[in-house]
Automatic annotation (TrEMBL):
Organism for this UniProt entry: Pedobacter antarcticus 4BY
Keyword Iron-sulfur belongs to the record: yes
NADH:flavin oxidoreductase/NADH oxidase N-terminal domain boundaries: 5-353
Cofactor field: FMN; [4Fe-4S] cluster
Entry protein name: 1,2-oxophytodienoate reductase
Oxidoreductase recorded as keyword: yes
GO MF, one annotated term: iron-sulfur cluster binding
Amino acid sequence: MSTDSLFRPFNLKSLSIKNRIVMAPMTRSFSPDGIPTDAVATYYQKRAEGEVGLILSEGTVIDRVSSSNDANIPHFYGEKSLAGWKKVIDGVHAAGGSMAPQIWHMGIMDNHASGWVPSQPFEGPSGLNRPDFNNGNTMTEKDIEDTIIAYGKAAADAKRLGFDSVEIHGAHGYLIDQFFWEGTNLRTDGYGGKTLAERSRFGIEVVKEVRKQVGEDFAVIIRLSQWKPSAYTSQLAKTPQEMEAWLNPLADAGVDIFHCSQRRFWEPEFEDSDLNFAGWAKKITGKSTITVGSVGLTGEFLAAFGGESSDPSSLDELLRRMDRGDFDLVAVGRPLLADPSWVKKIKEGRTDELKGFSKEALAALIID
Ligand SMILES: Cc1cc2nc3c(=O)[nH]c(=O)nc-3n(C[C@H](O)[C@H](O)[C@H](O)COP(=O)(O)O)c2cc1C
């Protein structure tokens, strides 16, 4: 099947991308004290040279004392960290690429295996990471207000440094998702509630503040997931109607692109339709969407953390859905960890040279 539809340009506000392929955000923990090193800049520049259309950075945390559980995860605040990020974006632009940082607050976390902990307890809607596990503080309204401001500040810094867009991490069981989920949001004030729509208030206010800080013309992406690591099969929105009540207010608040995280892009979201999450998000909101999840690989990514390898697989089903108009952009994770030239190889039909994924790709910043 022709891959031409992956190689059409995409333009939206501040984004001007040469093809439809997005590097998925992937935490690498190679930024000691939260500062991206020159090696990190080279790693991203190599993906731009390899013709990735839009690079999403690994999650990079906002300016809250306990926004991270790992000293090697990059900050998106502070002079030294932002100087590191400036080198990253300049290198990506020099190679003809585009990039957005994924701004992140982890919320309530498990303590990291390294033993490092932030100087204040983790913070979240109700102190919970999952229904049976409390490991931090319940945020006060003042904490919430300050955190929303910190997301906005990070977005403003992204624009100031020259990034092409910004992605808000609202997925995978971290802070914003902890507000969305009834299992971790037990609040009885205006940030809680029985319905997903009510529990979306925090996420909506984050989007509004980000929009306010970057202006109308800067593309804002939000990453969302139905699942979380502590509940793979859970669904925040159990029906299309619930999904409408969740996504439309986020769109109204200022989201331009919904990045719909699935572990396997071909899995339908609801009964009686083969549409995936990105397909439904586009149909409901009319906004652009990004799909993701095992594109071009045989196995899914959480198994990869357990050491499982994956082989290259066909793109035909992806292209069928894309040509039908289900989504605009396609994010690719593990193939790009292992091979900075993955996109080029797809474009040139060099499929016999694709590497697949093995756990060694997690251990280093591979640059060739
Ligand atoms: C090493 C690694 C780190 C990841 N870190 C993040 C992250 O920081 N933020 C995020 O939203 N997703 C993260 N993910 C999920 C990926 O963005 C992506 O959704 C997932 O790997 C599925 O895509 P794939 O099947 O193409 O690998 C990570 C995945 C991997 C493999």
